[in-house]
Amino acid sequence: MGKVDPREKLGRTDWVLAALRALVHGGIGAVKVEVLAREIGATKGSFYWHFKDLGELHKVMLELWEEVGTQRITAAVRASGLDPRGQLMLLADMVSVRPGEAIGGVEIEPALRDWGRNDPRARAVLERVDRQRLEDLAGFLRAVGVREGELLPKAQLIYAAVIGLEQLRLTTGAEMGTPLRDLVIRLIE
């Protein structure tokens, strides 16, 4: 994203997106007020206008990721008007889309997971997101007729595939959509 035109008013979102990009490129230790201010062409005072401290920024970073990476996707799938199978396929397609560079690109989810290994607040959000994603997946699987006893194991397989395919996309450039759709089809037929 880079510097913002100084004539444009910076908002909280500009700081949060810059922080997510810094997280991707250098871990949570790289999320520093001075560094972010330089990247977006702002002053440290602007940061403190929007956030009490770095802890508040960290909280908002996690909230944005949870909303964009989970809640919005699930809501869009449910609102699609598709039949249950179509919704499940749409979900597979949506989670396979490469995240935009403004939010950190394909490395954002692994960077967040890395942060969660060492930070209790980030870990708590990751655990909540993982539980919610598994619950949502189980709901979509239930809607296509998967038996109750198979819901969690199949949801876990799909979610593990998503996480693994994200890693392969990083290291090999592998495409996620087709293998994920193939797995979903095999699990529901």
Write out key terms for the chains shown.
mainly alpha; 189 residues; 0% strand; Tetracycline Repressor, domain 2; 74% helix; disordered N terminus; single chain; 9 helices
SSE layout:
Blueprint: H1 12-26, H2 33-40, H3 44-50, H4 54-78, H5 84-96, H6 108-118, H7 120-143, H8 148-172, H9 177-188
Helix pairs in contact: 1-2, 1-4, 1-6, 4-5, 4-7, 5-7, 5-9, 6-7, 7-8, 8-9
Query: Approximately what portion of the residues adopt beta-strand conformation?
Result: under 5%
Write the CATH architecture name: Orthogonal Bundle
Helix share bin: over 70%
* CATH fold topology: Tetracycline Repressor, domain 2
Descriptive overview:
By secondary structure, the chain is mainly alpha-helical. The chain has a single domain (12-188), classed as Tetracycline Repressor, domain 2. It is 74% helix and 0% strand. It is built from 9 helices and no strands. The protein has helices at 12-26, 33-40, 44-50, 54-78, 84-96, 108-118, 120-143, 148-172, 177-188. The radius of gyration is 18 Å and the shape is elongated.
Kindly summarize this structure in a few lines.
This protein has helices spanning 12-26, 33-40, 44-50, 54-78, 84-96, 108-118, 120-143, 148-172, 177-188. It is mostly helical.
